[in-house]
Each structure stands twice: as C-alpha cells, then as structure tokens.
C-alpha cells in the first residue's frame, strides 16, 4: 500500500514522486510506502491551512465540537483495526495499542465538549457602568510534530484542542509510524473537517520538520520528541517569536518504601519499566528502594523479569514487543556497556535474545541493573528501552532527593501505606506527574500532562490546560456610561 499526503482536502502524491518503505519492527517485513515529501509539499499545506483559517475561526465552537464528536465515534468503531495497524508498524503489544487508540477516542469526546465550554470570564469593573470580560481567540496555523511511540494518542492531544479552538493544522508525524497518522486524517476528513483545516505532510524531520518550524505563516509549533531536537526547535521558534510547546524526555523513578504493598509495587514496576518496551517518556527507568526491602524487591523483580515473553505484539502471549528500529537496539547496547563500566551490577538481561525466532526483529531482553548510584549515566540519561536501574536509599527524604537529582521532571511514583509520607512526596517530588501506589505511566486525558525542568518549556497537554496554548486571551471592556472614564484615574 502507498500512503499519500493530504493537502487542502485532497490526497496527493509528493511533488517529487519519491517514497520509502516502512518495516515491521518485529519481523523486518515491508508494510507500506510513505512519501518523501519536500519543502514544496509543506509550503502547499501551510498555504491551504492559512487560507482555511479565515473561515474556520468563524465556525461556532459547538459546531467545531460536533465534528470532533463524530471523529470519536469513528475511532471507536475502528479501534481494533487501528490497534492492529499500530502494532504492525510500531511494535507495542496489541493491548497497549488498543489503549493508545482509546486515548484518541477519549480526547475526541473530551475536546468535543470544549466546543461548548471554552469559557472566558466576566469580572467587575473598577468603574461604574462598565462591563469587563475575557474571551479566547484562535491564533492561526498550528504546526504539529509528533513522535512514533504513541502514534494515535499524542497527535490527538495536539490536533483536537487546536481545531476546537479554531486553529488550522499542518501535521508532520514521525517517519517511523505514518500509517496511524494517515488513518487519523482520513477519519477527520470523513467526519466533515472542511478542506484545508487539517493537512498531512509526511517526511523527515530534517527536511519537513525544519521547514515547518521556520515557516513564517506558522505561528504555533507543538513538538514532542527528544531534548536535543527540542532545544533546536526552541532556538528557531524563539528567534522568530513563535509560540512553541515542547514535550521532551524523562528519567522517571518509582520510590518503594519499607511499608509498601510489595505485590502491588512489583506489578507497578514491571508495567512501568517494560510496558511499550520502555519506549515511553513516562517509563520508569530508575527504581529507588528503601534499604530494608532492597534485596527482597530485587529478587522478586529478577524472577518476574525473566518470565517476560518477547515476541510480536500481535501475539496475545507476548509481554514485551520489539524496539522501534536497529538504531534503538544499538543505543540500548551502548548504555548496557556504560552501566557495566560504571560499576553497576547486571542482574539479568543486557543483550539481544538468542532465540532464532526473534532474529529478524529489533528485540532486547528486559534488563535490571543493581548497585547503581545517582551519579552514573544510566541513572541520569534517558535510554528509552527496557532497562531498569535500582538505587538504594535509607529514608524518604533521601529517596525524594534521589528522585529530583536528574535534569528531567516528568513523572514520579511512590509506593507506601503511610499517608503522611504520601503527602510529603506530593509536596516535594519535582515532577509534573505524581502517582501514589501506582506506576509512572497511565495519564488520563482530562488532567494536564507535562513536566518540569528539562522535560519541556512549561506548557501542558490534555485537559483544559491544552486550550491555553492553542488560544489567545482577549480582554474586553464595554463602557456604557456615555462619558470618558479613565481607569486608575477617575473615581
């Protein structure tokens, strides 16, 4: 199958007619072809979005929301099919792929409601016979750049609030997972989005992404990806005074206290560290354990890890699917060597599997390091693979300090039965997401999503907080006194 760009309501070949293959990361088999677009394709998409903005911004918010409601219904009807396609091209197990699609469904229905709820405020004026209020205004063309690990959820986090607020969209999905982007835009088209409001351009970050962030007619950029690329996006957009939202990396930790329910904690650790093969920005890659239970937790984890089944995500018996590509495998291998050289002890894993049935895929054994200190690179740098590092601490203050000793600040978790300890953690953990007696993954779409420090630039996705990025506040004063009144001067 050959995918196409979607520009101004039309499915179109790339200008230069060039394509490349997408491969199944579990088997190495070719799946479909995707365009190698050029800046010329991108320019056409931006022009279409710019032209459509003048009319889309005037469509009443409830009507915009009705289209998103239809999108949610269509996603729900096609959930199983979309999840299977996602597993084919991204590798995550089918159950997780279904959850990824469900996030898109939830976001569609949630943002559909915001078409009627995009509230401003009314407030008393300091002068008589004068009315004061605020309203939200759309901004223009939103450039949407998304990663491969959540190929349905993350695009919907960005595209749906952008559209419901009256912006138009140029969407550049990750090169590794084009099919879900294609299917999402087909559904938006089917639901009744007017021509030009949503445009899809496939291509590389170095060519299409770069052209998008530089384009003078794109005042909004929403980017999720690596810190290195995020810094570059921030530099470019800062010079050009664009509004930019950056959702970047994480080095997330689970804290386990002596009084924790260990059965629950181990379940949460396994899910958070090895779900999606560790390829989540919220994945747990550090395990901070109080010294009294350190050995017990280590032994339980090692036993559970060695029972995890690797394979194609389409197989219902698979626990851990492949990494996204060969480069990801090589990166994890590099960090295994770094950990050994730094003095960490490799308890289990640390290599590709030797099963001939997995030789064609990008698999890596779930890995556990112990004897890890906070100064080690494996405890500081984002690996983005199935690697967990155990750190021993004496107390809750030491655990919180260890949690906060990284440049990232996305997600953290604590397992404890002590309500005082839980609230102390809520107060002092320096992350945007905090879980009590649950793992580091599992954000819900009606709460703000995002992190502190090196994880981003302060904006949030999901919930009503997302609307703030995709709209401008406009303050309105209505003076019906019939005379000139001067604020701060006249009584």
UniProtKB/TrEMBL annotation:
One of its GO terms (molecular function) is aldehyde dehydrogenase (NAD+) activity. Part of the sulfo-TAL (or sulfo-SFT) pathway, a D-sulfoquinovose degradation pathway that produces sulfolactate (SL). Catalyzes the oxidation of 3-sulfolactaldehyde (SLA) to sulfolactate (SL). This is 3-sulfolactaldehyde dehydrogenase. Residues 19-476 form the Aldehyde dehydrogenase domain. Its EC number is 1.2.1.3, 1.2.1.97. Homotetramer. The keyword Calcium does not apply. The keyword Transcription does not apply. Belongs to the aldehyde dehydrogenase family. Keywords: NAD, Oxidoreductase. It comes from the Bacteria. It comes from Sulfobacillus benefaciens. InterPro entries: Ald_DH/histidinol_DH (IPR016161), Ald_DH_C (IPR016163), Ald_DH_CS_CYS (IPR016160), Ald_DH_CS_GLU (IPR029510), Ald_DH_N (IPR016162), Aldehyde_DH_dom (IPR015590), ALDH7A1-like (IPR044638). The active site is at residue 247. It catalyses: (2S)-3-sulfolactaldehyde + NAD(+) + H2O = (2S)-3-sulfolactate + NADH + 2 H(+). It holds the Pfam family Aldedh.
């Amino acid at each position: 199958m050959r995918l196409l760009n979607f520009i101004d309501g039309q499915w179109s070949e790339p200008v230069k007619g060039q394509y490349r293959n997408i491969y199944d990361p579990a088997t190495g088999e070719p799946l479909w072809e995707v365009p190698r677009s050029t800046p010329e394709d991108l320019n056409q998409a931006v022009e279409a979005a710019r032209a459509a903005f003048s009319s889309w911004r005037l469509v009443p918010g409830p009507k915009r929301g009705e289209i998103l409601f239809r999108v949610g219904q269509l996603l729900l009807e096609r959930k199983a099919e979309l999840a299977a396609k996602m597993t084919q091209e991204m590798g995550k197990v089918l159950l997780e792929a279904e959850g990824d699609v469900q996030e898109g469904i939830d976001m569609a229905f949630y943002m559909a409601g915001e078409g009627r709820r995009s509230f401003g405020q009314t407030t008393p004026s300091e002068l008589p016979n004068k009315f004061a209020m605020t309203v939200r205004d759309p901004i223009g063309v939103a450039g949407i750049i998304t990663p491969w690990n959540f190929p349905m959820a993350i695009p919907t986090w960005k595209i749906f609030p952008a559209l419901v607020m009256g912006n138009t969209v140029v969407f550049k999905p990750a090169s590794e997972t084009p099919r879900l982007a294609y299917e999402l835009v087909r559904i938006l088209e089917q639901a009744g989005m007017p021509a030009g409001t949503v445009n899809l351009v496939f291509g590389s970050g170095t060519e299409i992404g770069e052209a998008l962030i530089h384009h003078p007619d794109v005042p909004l950029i929403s980017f999720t990806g690596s810190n290195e690329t995020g810094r570059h996006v921030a530099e470019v957009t800062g010079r050009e005074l664009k509004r930019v939202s950056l959702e970047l990396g994480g080095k997330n930790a689970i804290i386990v206290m002596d009084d924790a329910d260990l059965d629950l904690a181990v379940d949460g650790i396994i899910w958070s560290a090895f779900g999606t093969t560790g390829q989540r920005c919220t994945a747990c890659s550090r395990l901070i354990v109080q010294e009294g239970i350190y050995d017990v937790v280590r032994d339980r984890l090692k036993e559970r890890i060695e029972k995890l089944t690797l394979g194609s995500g389409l197989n219902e018996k698979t626990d851990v699917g492949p990494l996204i590509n060969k480069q990801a495998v090589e990166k994890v291998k590099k960090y295994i060597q770094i950990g050994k050289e730094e003095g960490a002890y490799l308890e289990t894993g640390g290599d590709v599997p030797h099963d001939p049935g997995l030789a064609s895929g990008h698999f890596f054994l779930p890995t556990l390091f112990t004897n890890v200190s906070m100064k080690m690179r494996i405890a500081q740098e984002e690996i983005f693979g199935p690697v967990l590092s155990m750190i021993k601490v004496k107390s809750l203050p030491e655990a919180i300090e260890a949690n906060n000793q990284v440049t990232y600040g996305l997600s953290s978790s604590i397992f404890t039965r002590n309500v005082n300890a839980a609230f102390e953690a809520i107060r002092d953990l320096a992350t945007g997401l905090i879980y009590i007696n649950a793992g580091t993954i599992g954000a819900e779409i009606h709460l703000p999503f995002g992190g502190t420090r090196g994880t981003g630039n302060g904006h949030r996705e999901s919930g009503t907080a997302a609307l703030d990025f995709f709209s401008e506040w406009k303050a309105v004063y209505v003076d019906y006194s019939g005379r000139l009144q001067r604020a701060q001067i006249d009584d």
